[in-house]
Amino acid sequence: QKEVEQDPGPLSVPEGAIVSLNCTYSNSAFQYFMWYRQYSRKGPELLMYTYSSGNKEDGRFTAQVDKSSKYISLFIRDSQPSDSATYLCAMSAITDKLIFGTGTRLQVFP
Amino acid sequence: KAGVTQTPRYLIKTRGQQVTLSCSPISGHRSVSWYQQTPGQGLQFLFEYFSETQRNKGNFPGRFSGRQFSNSRSEMNVSTLELGDSALYLCASSPIDEAFFGQGTRLTVV
Fold this sequence. Notes:
The complex is a heterodimer. Chain A has strands spanning 4-6, 11-14, 19-25, 32-38, 45-51, 54-58, 61-66, 71-76, 85-92, 99-100, 104-109. By secondary structure, chain A is an all-beta fold.
């Protein structure tokens, strides 16, 4: 069993839809949780960073961490075609390496 | 503030050769990590350097090595290249926990 599980998609939604992306994990020592967006042939771009449990909002993006269920989510409101990319979750324990999910490919069509 | 810079962006090498990739982190960041990204395996952690010392290491063979200099710049080296080493190699720099990625070096082994 992988430490971090993420549905690879692809996920195809119409413009304006609310998108929900999720990851589950098995290591209860994880404390830092991140979401990255990666466009084709580019490096991952950090979108959201959360420490421990709770919600964090930044513009159209909301990150949620539920440590009791070992489950994290990223919500994208009013999705745009420019949001079409691969979204990667990542997490780590204190001073440990980042473990990535395999990424979910999102397509937002006009 | 300048981002993470990786050179070269693209590289073609022959089986059996060796290659050195370079990474300049964001100014002030002391941690540099290296990842290999392939379509089949996703993002896999290679190693992390902090203040010139290797702090974490992934499950890659000894052909993969790295180092960090006193100015935090880092290099990774792959010796005796194999076809399966063809991948996007990503460098990330960290102030503490969140990681900021460069655009990567796309290595093709023929």
